[in-house]
Amino acid sequence: MFTDKMILRIPGPTPIPPRVQQAMNQPMIGHRSGQFSELFARTEQRLRPYFGTSGEVFILAGSGTSALEMSVVNTLQPGEEAVVLVSGAFGERFAKICERYGIIVHRLEVEWGEAVTPEALSSFLADKPQVQAVFATYCETSTGVQNPIRELAHIVREKSNALFIVDAVSCLGAVACEMDAWGVDIVVTGSQKAFMLPTGLAFLAASKRAWDVIDSKKPLAFYLDLKAYRKSLADKTTPYTPAVSLIFGLVEVCNMLDEEGLPAIIKRHELMRDMTRAAMRALGIPLMASEEYAATTVTSCHPHDAFDAEQLRKVLRTKHNIVIAGGQGHLKGKIFRIGHMGFCEPLDVLQVIAAIEMSLQQIGAPVELGAGVKAAQEVLLAHV
Amino acid sequence: MFTDKMILRIPGPTPIPPRVQQAMNQPMIGHRSGQFSELFARTEQRLRPYFGTSGEVFILAGSGTSALEMSVVNTLQPGEEAVVLVSGAFGERFAKICERYGIIVHRLEVEWGEAVTPEALSSFLADKPQVQAVFATYCETSTGVQNPIRELAHIVREKSNALFIVDAVSCLGAVACEMDAWGVDIVVTGSQKAFMLPTGLAFLAASKRAWDVIDSKKPLAFYLDLKAYRKSLADKTTPYTPAVSLIFGLVEVCNMLDEEGLPAIIKRHELMRDMTRAAMRALGIPLMASEEYAATTVTSCHPHDAFDAEQLRKVLRTKHNIVIAGGQGHLKGKIFRIGHMGFCEPLDVLQVIAAIEMSLQQIGAPVELGAGVKAAQEVLLAHV
């Protein structure tokens, strides 16, 4: 096997498109140069449609978690109250960040694999008038569930004065996001998912209402102080050293996203989700997320006692050079997750399904070779 | 002029060596894979000699400032006292970070262009027994001054029980640093200086004594919580998503550093400093730093009324494709700074000097063409 052909089908990082790789090879430039400032300011503006906002998108050298923390430390103070929707590992991370800062957290927890429904949020908020912010996860990467952000935003707007803050790390750029129209106040994402870049950048956009709150509060941190980023962005730059080579790549990512167009990108991801789910059903492998709330970027499968998920992943990796993800938290070792996001096309999905079928046979699990591929082909043919 | 041949002679980012660029082009891998873990753990260990420590070096997705903040939020609590040595813009940044967290800051300030002497620190510490940490800047990038860290560490060890925390962003990898032997407790640096990588990574190493303090305190932040990094490093990984492509590059940087060897790297930088200073003296351009405390990675020049530093920079950039840095803070527009660090050799120094001479003539400043180059050549010839 070519070691250079290791195929990443995990929910981030995505493989890097060659033209993005090429863009990152441009010679280094000074991050305080006019050349960089022009590039940076133009690129920031090109990101806004993917967030669905007319406001600024702030670009941070850091992981997605750094931007999650940024959304907390600029909007809340110790002793204030927040509701955190916890439907998996990343909802739990939001709760932990809040708690680190002495914020009183009300967890709205659902079983891993389920979504938080608008009804559940509505009744949860009813007796909590003090809540200053509601945190939600758009795509819960650990379970493959996509929470109904638009509807949840509607509830928050209707039932409270809280800010609605959304972790969209593992889906933004692949899903609809109209933060201005829906009434979402902060959206956070990372570079290595649907944005098809290496890991190392995070993004955050904030609404006018969020800024009113931010302006009224003392930031609880320094590197993550949003007001410093806004002040610098007005001068087309960043307060601290930006990750220049990744921003070179981001320019080319914007070109690719704009060429395909967000509606087509969303459809491509829906198609890949439908193909993957059809295949898993045909192979008799239970899906974690329901039809209604299945993520378009990652599919989680729970084989229960039918076979060992870790054994499947190992054979896929060692015999077929394909990497899929395992479980997180209490699902570690029990489930497998197929990433189908970013630089990934329907034919790539057929490939990973075919490899899963062979691997199942190789680990001695009952499998009808070709059955999953056929089901996915039928979905694909109905769309093209 | 080839736009791809723009020559960076600023105090970071440094140009990227082709073999490092090449290494960053490897296909993306999962950051939770065994393959990445092995690579990461090996590379972390290879960094230790450049810090002069037998302890772990933590690698952070973020700018140098994020690691400066990391050194604060893990070692101090609001209301505790710190001494910050301020000899320029980056010392001032340390003070501001501390103040953001409600730490009582005692600034030991010296004129920009001067170093903090051991004597000054000794008397400053004398009446401050409560001080829990002393913060210093190894190379103050904004003035080209290298503070005498070894001697300052000796004073801190002798006169107080405080931790000694050092910002070595713009020099580590190019200067002697024996944190264990000298009694330095935390050393912080960034990727885009002597480590010859793009911007986007930061590094931090901590002493046993620092860890005793860190273990006794509640971290004031989440993404920058050092205990989380230590726990993950024991499992050969990071608590949050690492910047994988930059770490691919870092492996090759370690190869380059190890091949040349730290003693030779230090000598190369000293030589480039000496060449640059000899040239500026020959051209009659005043140097900001004294002989004793001149940085080996950046040289700051203050033309006073002889010519306009900004005009010189502009002609260098537009007519000769070479970028040098201007001043920061109250020196903005008044000085120019030549970076000679990382992927930079003595012949590169001759080139920038020759271009400065021509630019001086082009802006109508008095200059003897070749005089600076000759002085630098003589320094170089005496060394080879």
From TrEMBL, chains A, B:
Segments forming domain Aminotransferase class V: 16-328
Sorted UniProt keywords: Aminotransferase, Pyridoxal phosphate, Transferase
Record keyword Methyltransferase present: no
InterPro entries named among the record's database cross-references: Aminotrans_V_dom (IPR000192), Aminotrans_V_PyrdxlP_BS (IPR020578), PyrdxlP-dep_Trfase (IPR015424), PyrdxlP-dep_Trfase_major (IPR015421), PyrdxlP-dep_Trfase_small (IPR015422), SP_NH2Trfase/AEP_transaminase (IPR024169)
GO function term, MF aspect, one: transaminase activity
Listed cofactors: pyridoxal 5'-phosphate
Keyword S-adenosyl-L-methionine: no
Family: Belongs to the class-V pyridoxal-phosphate-dependent aminotransferase family.
Full protein name: Alanine--glyoxylate aminotransferase family protein
